[in-house]
Protein: Bifunctional protein FolD
Amino acid sequence: MPLDDTRYLKGGPVAARIIAEVRAAAESATAEGFRPKLVSITVGDVEAVDVYVRNQRAKAELAGIDFEERRFPAELTAGELEAAIHGMNADPRVTGIIIQRPVPAHIPIKAIQAAVHPLKDVEGMHPASIGNIVYNELDLAPCTAAASVELLKATGLDLKGLEVVVVGHSEIVGKPIAFLLMSEGATVTVCHHMTRSVAAHARRADALFVAVGKPRLIKADMVKPGAAVIDIGINAETLADGSTRIVGDVDTDSVKEVASWITPVPGGVGPVTVAILLRNTMVALNRQRALYRETYGTSERQFAAE
Ligand SMILES: NC(=O)C1=CN([C@@H]2O[C@H](COP(=O)(O)OP(=O)(O)OC[C@H]3O[C@@H](n4cnc5c(N)ncnc54)[C@H](OP(=O)(O)O)[C@@H]3O)[C@@H](O)[C@H]2O)C=CC1
Ligand SMILES: Nc1nc(=O)c2c([nH]1)NC[C@@H]1CN(c3ccc(C(=O)N[C@@H](CCC(=O)O)C(=O)O)cc3)C=[N+]21
Structure:
């Protein structure tokens, strides 16, 4: 089936719309003396992160957001990383900080994530940010989760009362998706590796989110006819000729014959994730500006001009 089939729920147009909004907001903030800047932190060489960072840089440039990549060696200690983050927390030119995952095993990711000041936490992964989602404050949510929900909304389906199944419950993808959907009024079932029959749950879903990391885990007989399938998986697969390609967690070729909507991989959730990261950067900037206003009264421009 060609990629222009209406069943494909493509990320490109959704991402382009978000990036256009971000660009307009970034331009006016810059004109007012607050140029947004995103800093990416990578520890060690992680191939899975390269594409993401490359797209972040390209789209940030498009949106008028400065982008700085900080690459640290794998031997970096947790203390050294924390010190670097504290420096960025204190630097008024840095709007947002994203720590690319995974980090080496000797670095405690939760503690490091908590070292990022909540006002600069553009990934929404600080425990305080995650907590806001539980309280139905949804304007800054973890990027991939928010992107997945944005794609479901693009179908036009009414989320209220919708039967949704989420396969995978990681803190960065599955759990925040479940919380976002609950806030939108959906009825949510979350499956994981101890679920007795993922298939039995998945078959009842009007919308199925899959974030596991296993190619072709979801087959056609696990999908309800007419469902929306959001495939979050990004898996590198080596072909017989030695070349590699990226596939999701869903057996797209068979599932697209059953589902009414399916996100392709690549070209689905990925591009929207990048767009949401940039949108979150503007949310963070606006929160910081509000704080400056509260703290320094009306002199925010003087402050920005330091
Ligand atoms: N498009 C994007 O922007 C992003 C894509 N990804 C991709 O999404 C996928 C998931 O990422 P992430 O959440 O970080 O991965 P994790 O490995 O952290 O989580 C995987 C989840 O899947 C569950 N699981 C494992 N096996 C099964 C199974 N057989 N049936 C049901 N559930 C199972 C695990 O449950 P348990 O813990 O109980 O074992 C766990 O909750 C990966 O392919 C990753 O590359 C990730 C981030 C961003
Ligand atoms: N803290 C953190 N947060 C993440 O969200 C996170 C992370 N770490 N580590 C790595 C994974 C992976 N990930 C991707 C996001 C978008 C694309 C993306 O834009 N993909 C394009 C690929 C296009 C191309 O191949 O050039 C697409 O799917 O169409 C890829 C990968 C986010 N992750």
Remarks:
- The chain has a mean pLDDT of 95.
- The longest helix spans residues 269-296.
